[in-house]
Predict the structure.
Amino acid sequence: MHARTHVWGAPARLFRRLFGGVLLGGVLFSGVLLGGCAADRDSANRAATPPDSLRAAVESRIAALNDMREALAQTIETPDVDRSTFERVCRPVGMRAQQMARRQNWTVQQLAVRYRTPPHEPDAEADSVHAVFARNPKTMDTWIRTVRGGASGWRYLRRITVQPSCLACHGAEAARPAFVRKGYPQDRAYGFEAGDLRGVYAVFVADSLLTRRPVAR
Ligand code: HEC
């Protein structure tokens, strides 16, 4: 079980625990959110809390996506992990993420510092949040105000945690299935242990979409 923590709506004590002494947090906080006004904690908290309807729509869909991966991974029989097995795990998750993006007009990504494939390398902002998650294992997710592709909006980032069932393909380097070793020459997504931070889900919703009702799943 993970404690659920909304960084920006959290009390000052939690805030200090997460960001105290963390240069990165300060940069994110003052640069992205406040334009240099990091001292005003209260206004920052308000500024970084998305409308309830948006929060519910994004968080529930990403939770469902994560549940889907974990449920699929549990169906793996370790001795014969091959391409057809993979078709039942991370590929449908990626497809569902892109389907969600198209339907809602959101950007939906899975990003990881130790990625399996280079398109999943984090941008600078996601990399900063990834680092905060890495240092704070109980921090589950966060919302930030940001600008992407020239549009201002909300970005939601949520931790992806390694489960024992993931290790069939993300465990020891030499134990990776053949289709991974052959098919992903730039793979860095191995050597994990259960409980590790695997990466982040990252959703961006432009402000221009906020008057729109989310499309049914
Ligand atoms: C059967 C093998 C297999 C299993 C089991 C598996 N994965 Fe993956 N995973 C892959 C492959 C292959 C990719 C690359 C997908 C692609 O080509 O986009 C991948 C990609 C990912 C990515 C996208 C980011 C990246 O590194 O490129 C994440 C996140 C991820 N896996 C997390 C998990 C988690 C968490 C679990 C367990 C709940 C899991 N995987 C179980 C094979 C697997």
Summary: The first strand starts at residue 107 and ends at 111.
